[in-house]
Amino acid sequence: MVPGERITAWRPAVTGVVEVFHARFTEHAYPMHVHDAWTLLIVDDGAVRYDLDRHQHGTPGDTVSLLPPHVPHNGSPATPGGFRKRVLYLDSTLLDETLIGPAVDSPDLVDPVLRRRIGRLHGSLTHVGDELEAESRLALVAERLRTHLRPRLTAADEPPAPGVAHALRDLLDERLLDGITLDEAAGLVHAHPAHLVRAFSAAFGIAPHQYVTSRRVDRARRLLLAGRPAGEVAREAGFYDQSHLTRHFKRLIGVPPGRYAGRGRRG
Predict the structure, then answer these.
(1) Deepest in the core among 35, 57, 110, 141, taking most CB within 10 A?
(2) Are 216 and 238 contained in the same domain?
(3) Residue 190 and residue 183: Cα distance in Å, rounded?
């Protein structure tokens, strides 16, 4: 690998995401190739030039590129310093093959809202234990992609249903410690995952993953003040591990768990 170039790749525990791929390339050029998954690409620095279906395209920083499966494409730096990109490879459970044609015709989407959502989705995919957040963000990203590719068949304008939102809250409360996937919850309340996220957020002013995290942090506070060590508290409050607890606890409370418990004992 050329000095300065680097890649990171992993398979998250999130249904629909085949691979997450982050890369910084200064000289590397991809030859013509195909994938068996959808390629959802954002460029954070520089630009990429690529050919898809014998047409040339480019990806400046404000563009979202969606390359369909089974269609050959290549890729090379379009700027002197190369490029830095983040890619999600998505399976057909999120975007079916009927959308391949529209994606070939218009693979580059100028949509600031979609671009921000994809960036935040990448952030949530980097942390083990934040799968519900990643699933919620992924559902909204996939819905917006379908809106671009097949706008008349999307459910984006379906009004949120308060009954669905309350049913989801009951499920989240019931499974607070063990957790529940968005797909499982959607099946139990008979609603599309994206609609479920929007309905919950509209009804309660908070996303489902934020609700779960805040409930778990509250439980952790009580356990910490009772003198329990942070390592035990993390597991008993529903967090993946102590670092998972610490990250969310500090973000919500302003101090890490150890300092919080120490102040409480002094008080």
Answers:
(1) 141
(2) yes
(3) 10
| Secondary structure (DSSP) of 211-254 | HHHHHHHHHHHHHHHTT--HHHHHHHTT-SSHHHHHHHHHHHHS
- Residues 56, 41 share a domain: yes
Q: What's the confidence (pLDDT) of residue 162? A: 66
227 class by beta-carbon count within 10 Å (0-12 exposed, 13-18 middle, 19+ buried): exposed
Provide the domain count of the chain.
Answer: 3
> In this structure, which amino acid lies at residue 194?
A
Q: What is the largest CA-CA distance in the chain?
A: 70
Which residues span the domain enclosing 179?
158-205
- The amino acid occupying position 95 is L
Which pLDDT does position 263 carry in this prediction?
54
CATH of the domain at 236: 1.10.10.60
| CA angle centred on 136, ends 94 and 93, rounded to 5° | 15
Q: What is the pLDDT of residue 267?
A: 43
Q: How far apart (Å, rounded) are the C-alpha atoms in residues 169 and 165?
A: 6
**Three-state secondary structure call for residue 7:** strand
> How far apart are the C-alpha atoms of 236 and 245, rounded to whole Å?
11
Helices (H), the chain: 100-105, 112-125, 131-149, 162-174, 182-189, 193-204, 208-225, 230-236, 242-253, 257-266
pLDDT at position 258, please?
Answer: 87
For residues 16, 131, 10 and 31, what is the CA-based torsion angle, rounded to 10 degrees?
A: 40
Q: Which of 148, 248, 156, 247 is nearest to 197 (CA)?
A: 156
Question: So what's the pLDDT on residue 257?
Answer: 92
The reply to whether 139 and 225 lie within a common domain is no
CA distance 252 to 223: 16
